[in-house]
Design a protein that fits this description.
This protein has 195 residues and is mostly beta strands. The protein has one domain. 6% of the residues lie in helices and 52% in strands. Strands 1, 2, 3, 4, 5, 6, 7, 8 and 9 form a 9-stranded antiparallel β-sheet that branches. The longest helix has 12 residues. It is globular and about 45 Å long. The relative contact order is 0.27. The N terminus is likely disordered.
């Protein structure tokens, strides 16, 4: 781990980041429970994401102690937490490399988009063509208010916007949670190629 990543991780710890990866949403009734990540990243793509109520801040995701996937990270991964109060995704694809085979999920590709409420995604890479309305950049993550019950820690860099649109979305994710997730035209299968 580079010195800058170690400093960043240490700064997050000083600011009260606990062992759990996501913010405490359970107490606010947003999510059923927190969880330790597997440490295996998965790819998510969509032709278009549209969201009302957007927040983003840095956090640490944590694996179960002794996980075979911890590598040189000590079981912790620095991620960008992106939260959207109401999201629609067109032509969603999600895949994870299972070692020569991919477990692949597709949905929202038959004229009806995928819909999610209180969607929270932990990523280390996000790509696409993005546009925002009424965006605040550099806001303290503990004061974000676009997604009920989702905030970062005091002193952590955050940003939020009234709306977000991302064309040609591609993410490298470690966790996804949602209060509700509707997946029209869902298909899951093992395939030779991922998203």
């Amino acid at each position: 781990m580079s010195l800058s990543r170690k400093r960043f991780a240490a700064a997050l710890l000083v600011n009260g980041v606990a062992a759990a990866a996501l913010v405490t949403l359970t107490a606010n009734g947003v999510l059923a429970a927190q969880f330790s990540i597997s440490g295996l990243p998965f790819t998510v793509t969509a032709d278009r994401l549209e969201g009302n109520g957007f927040e983003q801040f840095a956090a640490l995701d944590t694996m179960v102690p002794g996980s075979p996937n911890e590598g040189e990270t000590g079981g912790q991964i620095v991620v960008m937490v992106s939260a959207i109060r109401e999201a629609e995704l067109t032509n969603l694809c999600q895949s994870i490399n299972m070692g020569g085979m991919h477990m692949k999920l597709t949905a929202g590709d038959n004229g009806t988009p995928v819909r999610a409420t209180n969607l929270v995604v932990d990523s280390d890479v996000i790509q696409g063509d993005a546009s925002f309305t009424q965006i605040d950049i550099g806001q303290d993550a503990s004061t974000l208010d676009q997604v009920p019950g989702v905030v970062g820690n005091v002193g952590v860099f955050g940003q939020q916007a009234r709306t977000v649109v991302i064309e040609n979305l591609r993410q490298n994710n470690y966790a996804t949670t949602a209060a509700a997730f509707r997946l029209p035209h869902l298909r899951m299968a093992f395939t030779q190629e991922g998203c």
